[in-house]
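#lab-general

N.A. 3:47 PM
ok so I finally got the sequence cleaned up, no stray characters, all 349 residues accounted for. can someone with queue access submit it? mine expired

B.Y. 3:52 PM
send it over

N.A. 3:53 PM
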Amino acid sequence: MHPVLARKKWLGLYLAAWLPVALLLAMPVSLSGTAPLSSALILVLPLAACYAFQCLPAWYLCRSFPLQGGGWFRIAGVMSAAAVLSASLWLLIGSGWAFLLARSPLLPGADDLFRRSYPFLFAAGALLFVLAVFAGYLLVAADASRTAERDAFRMKLLAQEAELRALRAQIHPHFLFNSLNSIVALIGSDAAEARRMSLLLADFLRAGLKVSSVETIPLVEELALLGNYLDIERIRFGPRLLVKQEIDEGSKACPVPPLLLQPLIENAVNHGIAGLLEGGEISLHAERHGSGLLIRIVNPCDPDRPRSPGKGLGLANVRARLAAHYGGEARLNTHEKDGRFHAEIRLPV
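B.Y. 4:20 PM
back already:
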């Protein structure tokens, strides 16, 4: 549909824009026949409204003969012919209107007044159609620009979604590798615990699969997934692994990407608790600050521990997911101080 006809408001503005055009046309018509301006307006105003609709098809011509395709002489010839035909048709309609006015008490000399204005009205009609063609090409260009922006935005969203899926897919293999190694180690020493760990692992993967297709889940659901993961790790570490949670009630409904915290807790377990003979306590704190959510994870660690080459994969994954999901509005800050490793996430709600 023509963009002007798409909405009544735009059509009203378009017709209102033709009022000054009608006035500009009436002034030379009035002078050519030495008639009052009011008489010229009676003749020209309906004709201007009629020509406003006659110029609308110029947009369809612009779409049929795009400038990007080249063939400038062909386009100029088609548009010139269309301008001449449109102006000629306008004069034919105008002759009929002047004929009716001349036989009414409203404007008895309308046909003579119109006849004297033939050359001017024909030239004005052709020029107005050419201007409509220019406006049509501008509308086509604007529509193409909007379409290109929408396509670019759609492609950006698809790329972002693919990146998020790829980053999310990294979580399970990395975690599975560690869990399966633990199960293998338990089979020889404690088959019952190995079976229990396998069942817990299945429950965790099943819960993770349910949220794999959504962008965000409430923090309380994320904490439930985290609880499933910690149940698995407690089999490995027993009383050496303690977890203290301080969760603000206002933060529980805040949306977060699924399985965002699991890599951080896994990092705290494997690179903190696992390296300490007596184990330790992981502190998990979450609170809402206005339109932001703060999540802090603190775990003890051995300052003199050997730095494993694989360390940092979980942190890098979380940073990449935050960047892909929130852009620059979310961040993960980490630092180590006095034998404790701090990971702090700030993201918008």
